[in-house]
Design goal:
Shape: globular
Order of helices and strands: EHEHEHHHEHEE
Mean pLDDT: 88
Low-confidence stretches: 217-226
Radius of gyration: 17 Å
Helix content: 25-40%
Strand content: 15-25%
Distance between the termini: 35 Å
Largest sheet: 6 strands, mixed
Number of strands: 6
């Protein structure tokens, strides 16, 4: 039987001039550079045997998936098992400042970085992503699937499948915007992964300041898991 490949595609660059942790907040769209990334990834995968396309419901994921849908003539299947990780610091400016860390109301959120206590537990992210990945592998059996997701969920499922501990330093992640983490399965068994940045030549920049990012409430300030 031919191997099945599930490509985990991180969405393209988001327009975020105020540098907030947008998490699951609605309305955050791709910047022009992010749209160019989405087009570039679709072009890079033009020769692939993609028969199944999935994206989270967040706007940036849907916009990243759109060129792939056109390229392969596929409908985008929305699956929030691959959505961004929940985070208590949504709407906060990043990176964290000493002032943010010193606020007593934030201490409880930071009490256990191994879980992590500021957001969705790593094991929960791993389990929902695992279910989505195997669903996609089954749907694309013998072919290729693309799942448009977010940085932390992609990193978490790769670490889980590779047998690594789930907690980690966010600064060590290898999962740039519009990168591909490709998982291979043979007879339903995971055999390994590879990582690629097919549009690394496109600078991840915000648009000129002619349109404002959706307003978010002022709050204390990173996902500790990173905005992705």
């Amino acid at each position: 039987m031919s191997p099945t490949v599930v490509h985990l595609l991180r969405h393209g660059k988001v327009h975020n001039p105020t540098e907030v942790l947008y998490g699951r907040l609605p309305g955050f769209r791709l910047a022009a550079s992010g749209r160019a990334m989405a087009d570039g990834v679709a072009a890079a995968l033009a020769g692939a045997d993609v028969t199944h396309l999935v994206a989270s419901s967040l706007r940036r994921a849907q916009e990243t998936a759109a060129p792939l849908a056109r390229q392969f003539g596929l409908a985008i299947i929305t699956d929030d098992r691959v959505i961004e990780a929940a985070n208590a610091f949504e709407g906060v400016r990043v990176p964290f400042t000493a002032e943010t860390l010193s606020r007593p109301e934030n201490w409880v959120k930071l009490r256990n970085p191994l879980r992590p206590s500021w957001g969705e537990p790593y094991i929960q992210i791993a389990h929902r992503m695992l279910a989505a990945v195997y669903s996609a592998a089954q749907a694309a059996d013998g072919h290729e699937a693309v799942i448009v997701s977010h940085q932390l969920p992609i990193v978490t499922i790769r670490r889980f499948l590779d047998g690594h501990r789930l907690w980690h330093d966010p600064r060590t992640r290898t999962c740039s915007v519009a990168s591909l983490t490709s998982l291979t399965f043979v007879d339903g068994v995971y055999t390994g992964s590879r990582y690629a940045e097919p549009v690394r030549h496109i600078a991840a920049v915000n648009d000129p300041d002619v349109e404002r990012t959706p307003a978010v409430p002022a709050q204390p300030t990173d996902s500790m898991g990173g905005s992705s």
